[in-house]
Amino acid sequence: MSSGYDGRMADSQSSVMITGGAGFIGSTLVRQWLEHERERVVNFDKLTYAGLPESLEEAAEHPMYTFVHGDVAEPAAVAGTLLEHRPTTILHLAAESHVDRSISEPPLFAQTNVLGTCVLLDAATKYWHSLAGKQREAFRFVLISTDEVFGSAAPGEHFTTSSPLRPSSPYAASKAAAEHFAQSFAHTYGLPLLIVNPTNHYGPRQFPEKLIPKMILAAAAGEPLMLYGDGLHERDWLNVEDGCRGIRAVARRGIPGKRYLLGSGKCLTNREVVNAICDCLDERLGNKESTRLIAAVADRPGHDRRYAVESAAPELQWQPEVPFNEGIVQTVEWYLENTSWIDAATASLG
């Protein structure tokens, strides 16, 4: 895989700004960028409960890495960071992301995901207008959204780049609103914008409130595995390493003004995912029939039934590489072996 931007600036004097780089996807993206790309990485993160410095221990001492503690909803902090570090690319991942929390605390999601994105877009546009020549030509703003903005897919349906936005949850609505703001800045001011709609990521360092790590830790402890409803809700599960390779491909080879969907191409029901986790744990720990721990609870309000995307984009030269049956084994192993990270994540909840 090549490093740097195809036909664009790519050297140790330029930088990429990653918002939310202490989160699950963000921390993986930071590590990948430092390993494979040439730009300096500026990680701008508020360090909420789900943003853990422990996820960035490998990056912390890297000479091409800088951490900035800041909130995307604070204009002065964002503008100051842009002027000081002068990024060629902004990869915007900072967001509240847990659907259950969005149902109980919708205003928090509007504050970070909508207002925060608007503040960042405003600062980025002014910064971009201050650039000249090759720096101005090279600049990109990449918004990392979600497939959840499209709502629930019908059986056999796959969302495409032309699918309408029909968000169901407050989380999805906040991300759809962020997309609308971003597109308005591209249309009104000419901001070179790319939007990425990935499917459900999984892998190491995902906060334990999410389905896969939650089920791994509960099953390992012999606790009930609580599945919403009938457990037949379908998701396209994308390994986080593949997802971050895809984001890097969009930043390198994506065309401004386009939307890119990233998925594995294979849907699994939540029950199938939990069964796979149980099988891994039974083999790893010598347990017997961990699936007996599976129990049903009342379904989540407004729970989308199915997500699936069509991720064909030849110019990206990207495709997923990690099969789910391999990725889930690696993920289970990581959670069993990294108790100090789990302790830090649990402690962050207070």
From TrEMBL:
A Pfam family this chain is assigned to: GDP_Man_Dehyd
Superkingdom to which the source organism belongs: Bacteria
Q: Does the keyword NAD apply?
A: yes
Q: Which major enzyme category is it?
A: lyase
Q: Which cofactor does it need?
A: NAD(+)
Quick check: keyword Cell division in the entry? Answer: no
Catalysed reaction, written as an equation: dTDP-alpha-D-glucose = dTDP-4-dehydro-6-deoxy-alpha-D-glucose + H2O
Q: Write the Enzyme Commission number(s) for this entry.
A: 4.2.1.46
Which keywords fit this entry according to its UniProt record?
Answer: Lyase, NAD
- The NAD(P)-binding domain sits at 17-330
* InterPro entries linked to this entry: dTDP_Gluc_deHydtase (IPR005888), NAD(P)-bd_dom (IPR016040), NAD(P)-bd_dom_sf (IPR036291)
Q: Annotated Gene Ontology MF terms?
A: dTDP-glucose 4,6-dehydratase activity
Task: State any GO BP term from the record.
Answer: nucleotide-sugar metabolic process
By its UniProt entry, which PANTHER family does this protein fall under?
A: DTDP-D-GLUCOSE 4,6-DEHYDRATASE-RELATED (PTHR43000)
The UniProt entry's sequence similarity note says:
Belongs to the NAD(P)-dependent epimerase/dehydratase family. dTDP-glucose dehydratase subfamily.
Q: Can you say what this protein is called?
A: dTDP-glucose 4,6-dehydratase
To which species is this protein native? Adhaeretor mobilis
Q: Which gene encodes it?
A: rfbB
